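Reviewers asked in the last cycle whether our approach scales beyond single polypeptides. To address this, we selected a multi-component target totalling 726 residues and predicted its structure end to end. The input consisted of the following lines:
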Amino acid sequence: MDGSEDEVEEEDETEWRSSFLDSAPLSHAAAPGPSLDKTSGPTPAHRVILHFDLDCFYAQVEMIRNPALREVPLGIQQKYIIVTCNYVAREQGLTKLMSVTDAKEKCPQLVLLKGEDLTHYREMSYKVTELLMSYCPLVERLGFDENFVDITDMVERRLAQTSEPNDFSFKGHVYNHVGADVKAGDHPQLALGSHIAAELREAIHSKLGLTSCAGIATNKLLAKLVSGTFKPNQQTALLQENQSDIMGALSGLRKVPGVGHQTAKRLRALGLVSIQDLQLFPLNDLVREFGGPSARRLKNLAVGVDDSPVIPTGAPQSLSDEDSFKKMSSTKDVLEKIQQLSSSLVERMNKDGRQPHTFRLTIRRYSATNRWFSRESRQCPIPSHIGQKIASGSGDDAVVQLVPLAMKLFHKMVDGNAAFHLTLINVCFSNLQTRGAPACGKGAITSFFTQSTSPRKTQICSSQSQNDSSQSGDSHCMDRQLSTHSMITQRASQKTVTTKSPCSSGFKWEQSSTVAVEDPPLQTEYCSTARSGPKESNNAVTRRLPPNVDPEVFKLLPEEIQKELLSPAYANSLPSPSTSPSAPVAVPDATHIRKNKSPESFTDSKNIEDKAEAINELDPAHRVTTVNHQRPPRKSAFPGENVTAEGRLLFRQSSDCEFPGNVDPEVFSELPPEVQRELMSEWKQQKPVLKAPSSRKPGRSPMTKDRKAAGKGSQANSLLKYFKPS
DNA sequence: CTGGGCATCT
DNA sequence: AGATGCC
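The resulting structure, written as structure tokens, was:
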């Protein structure tokens, strides 16, 4: 399958392209109106759905950040797992989700980068979604590296204005077909879809530097299944007539998206192992086990039928941050971990711009049998004064007030006096609400999103007929997007790559109430904390609190928590130890909070961030990689990579912070000296800019859009926070 | 030596 | 609040 990509390729591409690019006719004679129905006219019987899957996503992001890594086998490590690796590594037998031990055994020269901090992956992920949305608003995310796009309307509009439906061709592969085997004229929608898919993949590559795979089919299930047929950096279309082929080719029921471990287990209990087993299994029997809706869904999936609509994802409905570990058994450690997680979460929440109204703490207890099951969580409302601080930028104040809340939740689950053994802690903000944005009420962006998402009705699972009514994307929106698209495409033709992050516009909600929340009167009902030791009165205790801890909240805490908050472990995280109650206490900043905690956090996140910042300012298209290599020149997906020697820096074998903290020193030391020098100089070139990940710089667009949640109550979104203004 | 997110459904 | 599923 090597070089011969795009086997079914014709030359009328330019014609198609121009046809595709020019702005749409404003009349949609044949465009699906609100009454899109199979009975109503020559409208599309089928949707055209694209599925995009970024190649080894985390590895690609890292290789963009440091192009020298393109030449070496690279693995992205989270804890003891290689979550993904580049294709150099895959050639040596590495696979996804392999243990570090196995991976190093199989590939001793493997270069490992820590991937627990998802910040860069998340940012790039949203850039991809944003880019796709600029062409077509119906984009649904699946994880960080996959997107569905419903281009039905775009295709129909193009077809309506295309005079010669016989000139059609397919771009890329066609499943189970070779060469000119396939008559594209018989599948105009999919054929056109394949060209759009190619166009979008090219945009992702030219603007963001990422390669991807795509699948073109009539529903999400098939598009996803077919997209992985040829990897990497290729695309495949699936014709209706080959649906049963691709379903039958699945090696087992687990391969069906939507059938997870549990479902597969229950199916196996019914004697079902293969796709065919499920296809032939009586629906009634299946209903008995799974209930009507799930049973029908499963039966449909088995034959490649999937009516589920592409639901625009928009901004996330929750933000969470978590860490796992082998063992955590002291309340002090829990407190510190919660503090660390909350600090980072609050920072992210602040960049988002929305205000969280619910806080949730999740833990996982150790269990010899099932280490990764049984999560427990408790949630509570976030007092508005805290929520406002989060959204307004007083993040450090917010953290200080949030931690006691979290500890309260923690002790709803864990008895601090008894022994415990945790293996994971997660903190989560949800119920995110857009706060009164002045320009947000009826702004263009807002209405755009309102339109694009409101017409969503939950599609019911119609039985067999494959022709699901395409969720009538509102055509107004599509037209507007199409014109946007031409503009963007024109810009793309200038070969300007917009990977830079600055985008300034450091707009922030100015919060008049920044100082408004005052410590409530201390005298009222102090007695609730009955046995505060004889040492100090409640008043004294309260005075020892950090200035931004709400005494009201404090006194509601279990006394053990109160003690913890006053303990050295906690106080040390503050700039001013509690020794002198009368001394003015500075507001702790995130760096302080971040600083004193578990050893692993000393892995210098500073350098990493610095590097990221510096790299982000470089234009990937123009940056010349300086690599000194005698290694077999891997064919890079990116042309124009150049190689020169650098090596003015000496490599220090010490395991200190001379190189980024996410680089395994051990592994690094095993690299060839040339590679070491190369990497070192790469790192050294990045000049320090920021200290904390608090790069608040990516300005928040003043606009927040409300995405009227389909069905559910408000889902106020500020998706634009994730999408840099283009 | 099995991650760190997200979402939906019940 | 938990279970399940996806990456």
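Residues 127 and 723 of chain A are 6 Å apart (CA to CA). We regard this as preliminary and will revisit it once experimental data from Aim 1 are available.
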